[in-house]
Amino acid sequence: MTRYNDKTYRIDDIAWNIHPTNTFQKRGEDVTYRDYYKNAYGVEIHDNQQPMLVSRCKRRDQREGAPELLYLLPELCTRTGLDDGMRANFNLMKDMGKHTRLDPNRRHEKMHVFRQSIDQNSKATNRLTGWGMQYSRDLVTLTGRQLPSEVILLGSKKTATASRQADWGGELRGNLYTTVPVANWVVVYSRQHEPVLQNFFNCINRVAPPMGIQFAPPKKAAVENTSIAAFLDAIRSTLDRSVQLILIVLPTNKKDMYDAIKKQCCVEAPVVTQCVTFNTLKKDRGLMSVVSKIVIQINCKLAGEAWALDIPLKSAMVVGIDTYHDSSKKGRSVGGFVASLNKTFTRYYSETIFQSSMQELIDGLKLAMNNALKKYHAVNGSLPNRIIVYRDGVGDGQLPVVVEHEVNQIIAGTLSLGKDYKPMVTVIVVKKRISTKFFAPGDRGSLANPPPGTVVDNTVTKRESYDFFLVSQSVNQGTVTPSHYNVIWDTSNLQPDHIQKLTYKLCHLYYNWPGTIRVPAPCQYAHKLAFLTGQSLHRSPHESLSDKLFFL
What we know:
The protein has 552 residues and is an alpha+beta fold. It has helices at 33-41, 59-63, 84-87, 90-100, 104-119, 122-130, 194-211, 228-238, 255-268, 278-281, 287-301, 365-380, 399-415, 496-506, 521-537; strands at 13-15, 23-26, 29-32, 52-56, 69-72, 145-146, 151-153, 159-161, 185-190, 219-223, 245-250, 272-277, 308-309, 316-325, 333-340, 348-355, 386-392, 424-431, 440-441, 447-448, 454-456, 467-471, 483-490. Helix content is 32%, strand content 21%. The strands form 6 sheets. It has a 9-stranded mixed β-sheet with strand order 6-21-22-23-18-17-14-15-16, with helices on both faces. Helix 7 crosses helix 11 (287-301) and helix 12 crosses helix 13 (399-415). The two termini are 36 Å apart.
């Protein structure tokens, strides 16, 4: 951030050969950076030998007349944002949350103050009047619907009911819905951390049996040093076809080691992995809770199911699609594609799609859809009658292109399976980054967050669209943000109420959290797959992992 105008810039490079005494063109005249800052902002430069920071302007700004490169003085810049140390400071983040996460009453109060400031500003009032607009003095009042709480299916025919906060974490101490015995697994760790591991193994032996998971004693591979090469060598030396899982205790949370291990185990020598940092295991406080989550995650990565819901929709496949830009190569993005394989929508086929342009729209959906249907047929002996696609990460301006391009690819992916196969297809665009907020009436005239399962499909929806808002989760701080769903293609003959209920049910099926999330599980799984591939793998995962949630 530059202190003289409070603007933020991304630093792309350092120009070591350019200094404040160098000149640039301003209205046809040569001006030194030193003189420019003095005349424009009244700032004196003290160090004439400092190099300049380089910020590359966005193409949109360049089209509007901005130069390709901006040169900034380090003396006048300060770092902004939060570093890792700040994020790890619990008290700091808690205090920040009081100002950034406003509860419904404080948010309404801030909106009221904002509206008053407009009324008191004649220039703003005249501008709005000229446009034939004015701010309402009251919030828009509308009627929503409350979907019923879901019954969570667990193992041994046990059930749990989601609480008012749509959370059932306390019920998972019993059997999981389906489990996979872990008979052959390896633990790779630094030898200096060995004393802490025994406590970790003891916790697994206490947590796993009540969940119905049997862990055999692991094979141990101690590494003499903490280099990346040493860990990769240990993984290679212990890996054979009988190994179900490799658990790696990372000495630090550095990204380069994590990336190297994931690339080795997801691309080159495919095996399910679970990475845990040493700092996580050495804390006695809360270790049982941490180990419980690790055990559940391992079970799900090995094709087990933590819980399920009763979904009456028969012969259907749900698909999640999301994109993430590849961090290793500018201009390349990766699409995550996941498709359900069973009637409870708890097992998935996954695939990644690479494309060369910086865009959100995915090419290659035809092949991915075709592969998913073949896998579905291999598992179930039949093809689904309905396909419901949840597409995340699309702006309003891209909706026509999604209809013309992606929907056609999805339908084309079904054609090669036979001329008589014509499934009913529904495509729903999911938007999380919206500014819409809903408030429910609280006690004594106050405002509160709407409870999970609140659906709004009137008044604030678009006349020309088949859309709705869904509040699917509960928040402990601030104001809950709904997700917006726009049905852009539908030949399924499902009623709007059925699509809304299915969407809410799918928000319960993300296995990294024993509660509801903001988007349907297929969307979140597609995001996790695209993120892992774009951040760490930079190549498509091995096809032998395609029927497992290895990316959790």
